[in-house]
Design goal:
Layout (H helix, E strand, L loop, with lengths): L2 H12 L14 H7 L5 H9 L4 H4 L5 E6 L12 H19 L2 E6 L5 H11 L5 E4 L6 H12 L4 E3 H21 L7 E5 L3 H12 L4 E6 L2 E2 L9 H9 L9 H5 L4 E4 L8 H4 L6 E5 L9 H6 L2 E6 L14 H10 L7 H12 L21 H15 L6
Keywords: Metal-binding, Oxidoreductase
Cofactor: Mn(2+); Mg(2+)
InterPro entries: Aminoacid_DH-like_N_sf, Malate_Decarboxylase, Malic_enzyme_CS, Malic_N_dom, Malic_N_dom_sf, Malic_NAD-bd, Malic_NAD-bd_bact_type, Malic_OxRdtase
Length: 390
Amino acid sequence: MDFNKAALEMHESHHGKVGIVSKVEVKTRDDLSTAYTPGVAEPCRRIKADPEDVYKYTFKGNMVAVVSNGTAVLGLGDIGPEAGLPVMEGKAVLFKEFGGVDAFPICIDAHDAASVIAACKAIAPTFGGINLEDIKSPECFEIEETLERELDIPVFHDDQHGTAIVVTAALINALRVVGKKMEDVHIVLNGPGAAGTAIIKMLMTAGARDIIAVDQFGTLYKGCNSAEAHKNWLGEVTNPRQIKGGLKEALAGADVFIGVSKPGILTTELCQTMNKDAIVFAMANPTPEIMPDEAKAGGVRVMATGRSDFPNQVNNVLCFPGLFKGALSVRARDINDTMKLAAAYAIADLITDEDRSEENIIPGAFDPRVADAVASAVAKAARESGVARL
């Protein structure tokens, strides 16, 4: 099937993918007077008296803003807010279809962090949460950190943490397959941008102790003097043996390779230098760092990609609909590490001991159990960690 052609036809025939559907009928004079003036003044007065009543009388409690400035759209790069709008519409569709969460795409013409922050703060009263999407690094770090600190609704950069949660879930099960423990394995991550950095943080939260990050210049280590602040931080907190060099040096004896970088960076020969029962997550899209057959030829036992045409697809749709559903259900102020780790284990634990195998370490994108399992785990973690208001 020619998906490019089909997508153009879909978007043109429907003029996009989302719209507004009224929850109430307005067919009579009484309907009009209740939905709008004069009746609508009463919920306005109630909310003015108690701002928390906005959750009772409006859609805020189940509405997420999908915010992007179009600076890092899919694999297309900085294409601008208008060109990024089809992606944000698609994200809103996935929120609704997979999690029952209402979401609205908001593409803003703002390239610097301060402008994006200001725009999000300005629209925050309307929404129960903000999902940041396709905002380039390093600005995305400052934007998310500032909004998390200054807003009292959950803010979540899916490109970072959605990816990190699903990777962690898949690795939990991959390690179960090969009989290794998170705290014992040597992990190499290639591509420490926004997603890669979040993956490292999430794996450390899950117990990983031995991680090496590799960028286009080589391994990150203490004093590596990168031009990017987050990479200097990674050099301080990872690479416990201070291995220097490139991917070849980092991979020698490694148990796990995680790629969020570019096609072809990993070879069969490099896989052969990894430890026995090696795990490879090659998630560059549409072409992974190594194709599954090439990795298997190098002795890799468990292989995952971001593609739907291979087993073990690492797909963010397993995370964000249920995550926000759970956070919104308890009116969480934040989405913290406890909630993220709970989401990862909820996804991983849907694969039973009987069903888990080298080619089945993570649920499929259309598994109907996922969103509710994640939502339940996230809501429970929010209560236990003190960020739930219900």
